[in-house]
Design brief:
mainly beta, 14% helix, ten-stranded antiparallel beta sheet
Length: 593
């Protein structure tokens, strides 16, 4: 075995004791050092400060659906917004072949909150406006399936004498639920407007035998997120006086990216090719894997592709007992999820968008070099253009994922995933809360112990100064090894995976900590990510975990694909969805460039 040292042992040298290149700064966290605090405690606190202004409080208390957005700014300010409406109008129906929805008198409040003093130092409240979208337009399969759902007595009991509209997402293509395999079940969501409140009904339709299917389960859902802003407002005592006329407005360019006045995103996509901080970035708009990036550093190739084919979003998951994510989610080695519901979320403009948001510059500072962040956002399942339904509060059943890459001038790359929620989480959190003894009807202990768990993925085609193949190395506490064939590795502190130019000095280094895993395989035809998600139904329905692609293919001196899996134990968040966001990130370092 070739000897080696962990990143913690080796300091800042460019080579270890064997002369093998090692990347510098691999364990250093850059701009996201405080992300866990900012997107949990600070987001919640900024929302409370904004909602405590009496003008904002009065508007929010009247809302029946709402949405929040938050960004930490670099000048000790939080920029935060709350938007929603006090009423909704639903027109059309199955007979008309369409449903049109209007968020009536929708308003947005934008605020800047000083992180040091918790003062509201800028405030803008928009005039109310109606925002409309077409929620559904008839197709033959969906019409027949919707009629089948409404024939179910459990559904009728929940929607009779109410106004409602359906949400048809791509769920049948990306879902396993109720013991039915990937591609065999479709959760159909009905949004219900009932007096002064909104709720949802979820009908799980088994479509294994035919496209119309049969309803196998029905769940009522009382709220779209665990703690919507209008409910948070009701728990707060407003301040004595508003600051709306005493502080500046919030300028458009310093508002959260997710919320423009009309419910769309604020976007500023960069050129298709650009140079910054020593990096050359070429990117292509998302297919279904998010933005696909090709990157070079100091004129030398690093990644032939960098993308995110899937985020695993699981609900009602069994208790974990040390298993890998493969064995925990898929114990039988097939595309049937072990819990209640799993979505293999795609990151696509077509199915939720909006895709690229823009580039944020990172200035040089005492503790870090200069750099930039390339951000994109995907609301998987949102139906309205640019997510107007999602941003008006009708977001149950839709997953919100922000994917970003920080590129630093010293050759460090930080992939960042941020979950804004909610997906289907309130269906399972509520069910767990109601079952205080965590027992089934027959008295046995429930197998669904984890309400929600997510796994974000990044795939990379590493080309460290060469496109002719790489040397793959693994450094751990036992030393350095060079696996001959494809492998799956669960992370532990001190474990590092290396991709090295066999004929040069360039190395890409990927440290693995607890909660991270890596899969390294040869590029294969008909395998994701080379095969785009959803393009081939047989490939899509057979997909469940990247480790399924592991075989006996040699990897040394070959072009490989590396999958990085980052776990997100969202139950560990200090506040529930609707007031916090989960952030996961890793560091990739270069040396020899």
């Amino acid at each position: 075995m070739i000897g080696g040292r962990s990143s913690a042992q080796r300091g800042t040298d460019d080579t270890d004791a064997t002369g093998t290149p090692v990347a510098r700064g691999a364990a250093v966290r850059r701009a996201d050092d405080e992300a866990a605090v900012l997107y949990t405690y600070r987001k919640r606190r900024a929302l409370e400060v904004l909602l405590s202004d009496p003008e904002v409080h009065a508007a929010a208390e009247d809302m029946i659906s709402s949405y929040e957005a938050y960004e930490p700014l670099s000048d000790r300010l939080d920029t935060v917004s709350v938007q929603g409406c006090p009423d909704v109008e639903i027109e059309g129906g199955i007979e008309e072949g369409r449903f049109d929805v209007t968020a009536v008198q929708r308003q947005v409040a934008y605020g800047h909150v000083d992180r040091g003093t918790d003062d509201l130092v800028a405030l803008t409240i928009t005039e109310p406006q109606d925002v409309s979208w077409r929620a559904w337009e008839a197709t033959e399969p969906e019409t027949e399936q919707l009629e089948r759902v409404l024939d179910d007595s459990r559904v009728r009991a929940l929607v009779d004498d109410t106004d409602w509209f359906p949400l048809f997402t791509i769920s049948e293509s990306i879902t396993s639920a109720r013991g039915i395999e990937h591609g065999g079940v479709n959760p159909v969501v009905l949004f219900v407007a009932d007096a002064d409140s909104t709720r949802a009904v979820v009908a799980y339709v088994d479509i294994r035998d035919d496209a119309v299917g049969d309803v196998v389960d029905v769940s009522p859902v009382d709220r779209f997120v665990e703690y919507p802003p209008h409910e948070l407002a009701a728990t707060l005592e407003p301040a004595d006086e508003t600051v709306v006329d005493a502080v500046p407005d919030v300028p458009f360019e310093r508002r959260p990216w997710y919320t423009a006045d009309d419910g769309v995103h604020r976007t500023d996509a960069p050129p298709a090719s650009f140079d910054r901080s020593g990096w050359t970035i070429d990117w292509e708009p998302p297919g279904h894997h998010g933005v696909e990036i090709t990157a070079s550093y100091r004129g030398t190739p690093v990644f032939a592709s960098l993308e995110s084919p899937v985020t695993f979003t699981g609900y009602g998951v069994p208790e974990r007992d040390g298993e890998t994510t493969l064995d925990w989610f898929f114990p039988d080695g097939d595309p049937v999820f072990a819990g209640e519901l799993l979505r293999w979320d795609v990151h696509s403009i077509e199915f939720g968008g909006p895709g690229p948001l823009g580039v944020v510059e990172h200035a040089d500072a005492d503790d870090r070099p200069s750099g930039f962040r390339f951000r994109s956002h995907y609301e998987t399942g949102a139906q309205a253009p640019d997510g107007q339904d999602h941003h008006s509060g009708y977001r149950f059943g839709q997953s919100s994922h922000e994917l970003a890459y920080d590129f630093w001038a010293d050759g460090v790359v930080t992939p960042v995933w941020r979950r804004q929620g909610p997906g289907f989480v309130t269906e399972y959190v509520t069910a767990g809360a109601d079952d205080e003894d965590d027992a089934t009807d027959d008295g046995a202990e429930s197998e669904s112990a984890v309400a929600h768990y997510a796994i974000s993925t990044v795939t990379m085609d590493p080309v460290p100064g060469t496109t002719d193949g790489v040397e793959v190395g693994v450094v751990d506490e036992t030393g350095r090894s060079t696996p001959e064939t494809e492998f799956y590795l669960a992370g532990e502190p001190g474990t590092v995976v290396q991709f090295t130019n066999p004929e040069g000095t360039e190395t890409i280094e990927l440290p693995l900590d607890d909660g991270t895993e890596v899969v390294v395989v040869r590029r294969g035809a008909g395998e994701i990510p080379g095969q785009q998600r959803l393009e081939n139904p047989s490939v899509e329905s057979a997909f469940y975990h990247p480790a399924q692609y592991i075989g006996d293919e040699p990897i040394q001196g070959e072009r490989v694909v590396a999958w990085l899996l980052r776990e997100a134990a969202t139950a560990a968040l200090p506040h529930p969805t609707g007031s916090t966001s989960f952030v996961a990130r890793n560091v990739i370092s270069l040396s020899g460039y």
